[in-house]
Amino acid sequence: MPSIIMGKLRKLAALRRRHGIPINLHGWAQVIAAELDDFNLVSLRHQCCRIGLANLASHLAQEIIAREQERRQRGRHLSLKQRGELLELTTAERDAIDFWLAYAIDETPEAGRKRRARERAQTAEGAAKNAARNARRKERDRNRKAAQRLAEGRPTQEDRSRAAAERRAAIEASGLSQASYYRQLKKAENEKVGSAENVGSTREHKRRLNRSNRGDTISKIIAHLERANRERDVRLGANITLPVPPPPLTYSVNDRRDAAGVIASPAPKLGGAVTIRLKVAS
Fold first, then answer.
1. What is the domain range of residue 116?
2. Non-local CB neighbours of 93 within 8 Å, separated by 6+ positions
3. How many domains does the chain have?
């Protein structure tokens, strides 16, 4: 409890300094002394400085300590009303920092309870009005979106519910579980897509196209080499002597295979291209 009151006193002092409201140092010192367990001159002045009050004079501090000792000897404690009067606490300050450990000097506790009940009722009424307004706005948006979906030809909730009921009936009629039913349905759709009347997958189509292109390229290279050999009367791989050695014939293909006995060697860093050279001895 003392730590809570000290924290509220610090907040109240900061609030009054911010708004330029004067602080009664004598009354505040009495409230602080009543909350200290081991109160003396040093601890009282230290707590006043921590809260942000002005430096408490020694004779004033000794007077407050003597009065607090006498009050404690009689077994009396500060009431909420006395604490509020010493702090000169107003209703606005009490509500601003939630200082419920002291009564306000400008409002009785009963009047304060009635006022807060009226404020809560007004808040609840305002919340109910906001909820009703939000409900009307949501209903208006829902109707507008439903009309838009109907104009676009999209299925309504009734259509989706009817289709779901038909699917459930089909699953029950098949005698299978839901997972098995959908697996077989998907398998049938895949078989239909992969039938002879339909085009194969894009990946398979590309693979077949690349394979046919490689075969056509190799066939063209072989035909060109045979034509060059016939012109020079040279067979593939034969060594003959010519007056002037012709330049080597170089071809690049996308396959790492020998073409009809032609020596094949990979070209450096050409994306997998293969260089085929026809060797003719001089």
1. 109-157
2. 12, 15, 16, 99, 104
3. 3
Radius of gyration of the chain (CA): 49
Read off the pLDDT of residues 63-81 as tens digits, 9 standing for 90 and up: 888 888 888 888 888 888 9
Q: Do residues 251 and 221 touch, judged by C-beta distance below 8 A?
A: yes
Q: Which of 41, 6, 59, 48 is nearest to 25 (CA)?
A: 48
Looking at 74, 107, 140, which one is the last position of a domain? 107
In this structure, the answer to whether residues 116 and 132 fall within a common structural domain is: yes
Count of C-beta atoms within a 10 Å radius of residue 166: 10
Residues whose CB falls within 8 Å of the CB of residue 239, separated by 6 or more in sequence, listed in order: 280, 281
Residue 186 lies in a domain: no
Q: How far apart are CA 246 and CA 237, in angstroms?
A: 15
* Tens digit of each residue's pLDDT (9 = 90 or more) over 142-187: 999 988 988 998 888 888 899 999 989 999 998 889 999 899 888 8
Residues 144 and 236 in one domain: no
pTM (predicted TM-score) = 0.43
Residue at a domain's end among 89, 107, 125: 107
Angle subtended at Cα 126 by Cα 124 and Cα 130, rounded to the nearest 5 degrees: 115
Query: If we measure between CA atoms, which residue out of 119, 72, 78, 120 comes closest to residue 102?
Result: 78
